[in-house]
Amino acid sequence: METVTEPLRLDIGAILEQLPHRYPFLLVDRVLELHPGKSIRAVKNVTYNEPFISGCSPSRPLMPGVMIIEALAQAAGILCFVTAGTSPRGSAPFYFGGLDKARFRRPVEPGDQLLLCARLERRFKNTLRFSTTAFVGATEVASGNMMLIAPMAAD
């Protein structure tokens, strides 16, 4: 029988402990719900003053798809570190290993709040495979299957 526990919630201070990224490349503002070894739901508040917004398309400011994928990878990275019970300062970081079936369904604009969802699908040796989806409100804006590689052996 599986024990049900309350999901973890992380503020920006705890996120800074779980990721090596810093401004302007830190793309997770808050973790709403984290179930170690299972899933994470996090938030990225998209603002006009981010360097990649105004530089991407001056006539219509948008968040580039590659940055949405990076935000999803950072959320999955937090899940990896919390699941492993370590931090980027306590061990080597997880590395982005690949992306399959990436889909972009609608543009993300300044003022949008991006909900980042990642679910751990499979662990094999040091590779972790995630199903990821990004939403604005109830609308799916991007999705993909990604792999993160841990330099240490994962169970």
Describe the 3D structure:
This protein is an alpha+beta fold. The protein is 21% helix and 38% strand. The chain contains 3 helices and 7 strands, in the order βαββααββββ. Strands 1-2-3-5-6-7-4 form a 7-stranded antiparallel beta sheet.
Quick tags:
seven-stranded antiparallel beta sheet; 21% helix; alpha+beta; 7 strands; 155 residues; 38% strand
Question: How are the elements arranged and paired?
Answer:
Elements: E1 8-10, H1 12-18, E2 30-35, E3 39-45, H2 51-56, H3 65-84, E4 95-104, E5 113-124, E6 127-136, E7 139-149
Antiparallel strand pairs: 1-2, 2-3, 3-5, 4-7, 5-6, 6-7
Spatial order of the strands in the main sheet? 1-2-3-5-6-7-4
Q: SSE order, as H and E?
A: EHEEHHEEEE
Shape: globular
In terms of DSSP E residues, the strand content is 35-45%
SS summary, helix count: 3
Measured distance between first and last alpha carbons: 21 Å
Percent range of helical residues:
10-25%
DSSP summary, beta strand count: 7
Poorly predicted ranges (pLDDT <50, ≥5 residues)?
A: none
Kindly report the average pLDDT value. Answer: 89
Q: From the alpha-carbon coordinates, what is the Rg to the nearest angstrom? A: 15 Å
Instruction: Characterize the biggest β-sheet.
Output: 7 strands, antiparallel
Overall structural class, as computed from helix and strand content, comes to alpha+beta
